[in-house]
Amino acid sequence: MIDINKYSSSKYLLFGSLYFSEGLQLAIATVIIPIYLLEKNFPPELATFVIGMIMIPWTIKFVFGWIVDYSIQLSRKQFILFGGLVSSVSLIAIAFVDPSVSLISFLLLLFIGHCGIGFLDVSADAWVIEISHEKERGKLNGVMAASLFAGMAIGASIIALIAQNLGYSIAFLAAGLLILPIILFPLFIKEIKKIKKHQKIALLLISEFRKKTTQSIAVFLPIVLIGGGIIQFAVPIYMKINLQLDIGQIGLIATVFILAKVVGSLVCGATSDKWGRKTSIYIILGLSVFFSASLIFANNWQLLTVLYGIIGFLSGGLLSVLMATCMDITNPKIGATQFSILMSLANAGELGGGGTSGTLISLLGFGRVFLYSAWVFGPALIILYFIKFKKQTRKA
């Protein structure tokens, strides 16, 4: 058994690999499945409905978090293995289900698989909170976020190529088999349970959210990610309509965006351990205001690629620092529940911004949408000024 407290590199490998599997699942759900259903002659509105159903577990992660914390007698590792196996087996199973013959079975298997990922995600986060200290959480969350984006890139490219050349059934089977050894890796990791007694989750949760810092960050999280959500959804549409790029060109530029997020996660996560979370967020948001507004000048694909890449770098960096910040203020006794609530708020802001971007484009045009996406960072900066961050301490 590997003791991750003694061998720090194994800590990064463990949680990075688990987040990679999550990114792979996300790419399959948001990229591969929609194309598969359209090729099966499903109407777009039904295809998007299916994706919406699949993604529900990601918006209710706090439910999985509560179950994990309530069942504290079981280890975080056990829930990771359970959730990972469920997600892997579900992908293998849908390889043998034709949605045009049994859409309900297809949808149910995918939904169950993402519930499994929900258990894996909140359990991994709670484990990180338990074993890490403030001065390494930036680097650790940087690796985790970078691995998530890397998994999305692999899923959107390699798995898509397998589907194109060998068929979707083989692609789903390959993805399920790829995830299987990743989620079995925790079997070789030694877990020391620091919390063995049943916790009064509701009382602890109320106590934590009575703290002014926790309340301020809970308000800050959805607001700070609205602008990024708008940009992420609006730019591909801008490339198609205004720059008249084809799907291949859009895909290449999107890949630059994802790879930049990987680099940004690693760099900003590490620097936040040295400079502090608040300083790092100030720098990221200040630059985000400038480069988001600069998109109004992107009248060719070359300039857009540069700006979009920089925004991707900042977006990835912001996520890793925000995750580390939330872990810093999370009570390890309810690590799965409290952290999942905070992340659900962050997801709500990003998805809310993205979900309204189409309407905003129709009403305001691309130029104003890009300017408003930059403007949204203003209120976030004001809120940030009043937040008292927990002082980072070195491990004794």
How much of the sequence lies in strands comes to: under 5%
Q: How many distinct domains?
A: 2
**Averaged pLDDT:** 85
Give the CA-CA distance, first to last residue: 25 Å
The largest sheet, given as strand count, sense and whether it forms a barrel, is:
2 strands, parallel
Structure write-up:
There is one protein chain. The protein has a two-stranded parallel ribbon. It has 17 helices and two strands. The radius of gyration is 21 Å and the shape is globular. The protein has helices at residues 8-39, 44-54, 56-59, 61-70, 76-94, 103-131, 134-166, 168-184, 201-209, 212-224, 226-241, 247-275, 277-293, 301-329, 335-364, 366-375, 377-386; strands spanning 2-3, 189-190. Helices cover 80% and strands 1% of the residues. The protein has two domains: 2-198, Growth Hormone, Chain: A (Up-down Bundle), CATH 1.20.1250.20; 202-386, Growth Hormone, Chain: A (Up-down Bundle). It is an all-alpha fold.
